Structure formats: C-alpha cells, structure tokens
Amino acid sequence: MEWIESFTTATKRVAKALDIGIEMVYVGKKNAKEEHKKITGLIKEKELSHTWEDDNVWFFWNQLESMLYWKTQHGKTIENDVIKQEVMKMLGYDSSKNGWAVFYTGSGELVKANGEKVLSTMHSFEEWEKLAKQMGFIPALREKLERVIPHHYCARLILPGNGGRIPERVQCAECGRPMELNFLYRCGAE
C-alpha cells in the first residue's frame, strides 16, 4: 500500500507540473483476492485512484496467459514477436513483489515499467521536467526509463502448470538477457 500511495502522489505531482490530465486505475495481482479487497478498500477510502473488481483482474491476467500460450504453441519467440515480448513483460509484473505502471494516451503512445523504476523516475521528475515539456510526458518518461539500469534482477516470470511444456530458453522481456530457470512450488491458498 505504501508503494501505491507514493506512486499516486508522485504521479499526480508530475501531472500537475505538466498541466496534463491523468486517470489511474489499480489492477492488482492475479491470485491475490484477499489482498486485492484490502488494497482496493484503502484506495477508495483515500481516493487515490479507480480500481478493478476481482472478475476483471482475473480476466485481464488470464487473457495475457492465453496470449502467451497461443504465441508459444505457434513458435513465436520474443526475438520475432513484439506482442509475445510485451505479454511476457506484463506477466512478469504480476510475478514480481513490486508494483508496475502503464501510461497510455488516446493517441496510442504507451510506456510501461516495473514499480521500482517508475517510482524512482517519478521522484526524479526535476531531472527530466524540461524534456517532458519539450517532447511530451510519455516520450520523455520512456527516454528516462530506458536510462535506468536495474541494480538486481529485472524481472521474474512465473508460469502456471502448462502440461509439461517448459520453454528451454526464455529471454528477459525487460533487458533481453537470458533468464535463469528455477522450479517454484507455491501453495495456492491466499
């Protein structure tokens, strides 16, 4: 919850400085119903942003997983398929402990990043404010985010059981380096 408050406060400050409108929605994680209810309650109480209901959250993450499996079954890789690359980034965000953000304009401009990167970038707005006023918010944010070098692992990707079809090699959708393969057993109880 601390990250959400810090992120929304910083983002609203940036939007105000640039005199742009911004709408935010909390999506949540795929398998965290109790946590989602608690967080959405606090978000509504503090009027931080809009929120999605549990069914919409589940549908969002399942659609992304379905897209990934379809792309994999049809021989697509992140090297030859931009959609698969972007889907893997989004699924990696669900697997991470940190938050994440996607910024989108009606004109089709889009930028996304993991929570740590986007929050530090929002907090350092004074460094790229001039650029944002020249280029626009999303292009300047994208440029600034591309310069942020992670201090540790970029992302992790947790794939649900998929009938024994484990990809031999997976590239990190954030930085392009090969990802380490580990097996994780996790209790499904919340």
UniProtKB/TrEMBL annotation:
It comes from the Eukaryota. Coiled coil: none annotated. GO terms for biological process: phloem development. It holds the Pfam family SEO_C. Residues 1-188 form the Sieve element occlusion C-terminal domain. InterPro entries: SEO_C, SEOA. This is Sieve element occlusion C-terminal domain-containing protein. It comes from Gossypium laxum.
